[in-house]
Write a structure and sequence with these properties.
53% of the residues lie in helices and 20% in strands.
Length: 415
């Protein structure tokens, strides 16, 4: 319940005693401290959200939202499964794939790779690799042509580009008259992609699914099916429903399981940054405590007069609670406004600073993400604003309680 008299006195105490009636310097410092902490917290968390979403989009440009595979064996009835899954709500596309390991060699150089056999016409429905081609295109892969698409980093390390020849060796052996020889095949580089993730750009190669089945002796079998969903956040729940639909003979995994360590690390880092930056707001709250203590000391005579006029200790306490709450509320509002504005325009601001000082904070030749993506999360904003306001209110309790303990006779003895 708000008491008008106490609120009025608290507002008066927030102002300076000078003629200009501007907010006192000490109250302004407390407001700006709170505002600075809230602004920094919102901006940093928004940038971290932006980096997280950027990394997630790059991972999911290559990885599937959901994969369906068999337990310890390849899928033989994949056309039937693919047709049944296509009728589920939320499925945007599905594509079969062959996944195996191999050794890529050229000019005396070699590199272990993950080989993915795909159907180019269906792969476009589950990934955006076709949009990340630096050279060539997915449609250049064709059955029987033995063409291969490499990641950018892998192509650079091997010193090859579109049109060059490479040898892909499978971890299987063929028995011939000359003895046991490894299975290998000469491929022509048909393209180079850049997913923006070193893991893929340096270790993934794409070939036609039929060529992969021939090289790895899989007949008409595939390693599994890759699915793309309309809502990627629904992947865990969708996986549970799909597991019940297909039965226990199939292994269903979603992107959160395949990259759980990476995304967990991002979440932990965000939580740690939240705690660290929240200390800025805590420091501003401590500053508010010192501000109110100084005000209480300065207003001893006023408090004593108010007590003699009939105000109770509770009323006196309310005056200073209102004063501190007003300071904290205004500081929080300023911080929210500044943080939201900065988070929504951080990319433009960083670009302008880089142009003015002729520097580049994240050079493209060193970092996969050379910009500062930002994603404002309103849930984070509400939590930050709420915690800042609560800390401001809690900071008023001790000074207000101390003011309520003022004895009129002692305060007015030397007046």
């Amino acid at each position: 319940m708000i008491h008008p008299l106490e609120l009025f006195i608290g507002l008066r105490y927030t102002r300076a005693k000078r003629r200009n009636h501007f907010i006192s310097f000490i109250s302004l410092a407390s407001m700006l401290g709170t505002a600075l902490g809230v602004t920094a917290l919102i901006t940093v968390l928004s940038v971290m959200n932006g980096f997280g979403e950027e990394l997630r989009s790059r991972i999911l440009s290559v990885a599937a939202h959901v994969t369906v595979a068999g337990y310890g064996k390849d899928l033989t009835d994949w056309p039937v499964i693919q047709k049944s899954i296509a009728n589920n709500d939320g499925v945007l596309g599905s594509a079969p794939y062959v996944l195996a390991q191999g050794l890529l060699t050229v000019h005396g150089k070699s590199s272990g790779v993950m080989v993915r056999g795909i159907l180019p016409e269906e792969e476009v429905s589950v990934s955006s690799l076709g949009e990340n081609m630096k050279s060539g295109k997915l449609d250049d892969l064709a059955a029987g042509k033995y063409r291969i698409i490499l990641g950018k980093e892998l192509a650079y390390s091997l010193g090859v580009w579109t049109g060059d020849k490479v040898t892909l060796m499978a971890p299987q052996a063929s028995v011939t008259a000359a003895g046991i020889l490894p299975r290998m095949k000469r491929f022509t580089v048909a393209g180079v992609f850049e997913a923006g993730m070193y893991e893929y750009d340096s270790g993934l190669v794409l070939i036609d699914m039929t060529d992969a089945q021939t090289l790895y002796r899989m007949k008409n079998e595939v390693s599994g099916l890759r699915l793309k969903l309309a809502d990627i956040d629904a992947a865990p729940l969708f996986s549970l429903g799909l597991a019940k639909q297909l039965g226990p003979n199939y292994r269903i995994r979603n992107w959160t399981q395949e990259h759980v360590s990476f995304f967990r690390a991002l979440k932990i880092e965000k939580n740690v940054m939240f705690v660290i930056l929240m200390l800025i707001v805590a420091v501003a709250a401590f500053n508010l405590v010192s501000t109110l203590v100084m005000v209480v000391t300065d207003k001893q005579a006023d408090i004593a007069i108010l007590r003699t006029l009939g105000m109770s200790p509770g009323n006196i306490m309310s005056v200073f609670v209102y004063q501190g709450t007003i300071i904290g509320f205004i500081g929080t509002l300023l911080g929210l406004a500044g943080g939201i504005a900065l988070a929504l325009n951080v990319s433009s601001i960083v670009t302008a600073i880089e142009g003015f000082f002729q520097v580049q904070f994240m050079p493209a030749d060193l970092y996969y993400i050379s910009g500062f993506p930002s994603s404002l999360d309103w849930h984070d904003v509400s939590i930050i604003g709420g915690l800042s306001f609560i800390m401001s209110v809690l900071a008023t309790l001790y000074p207000a309680w101390r003011a309520s303990r003022t004895m009129p006779a002692e305060a007015l003895r030397y007046e």
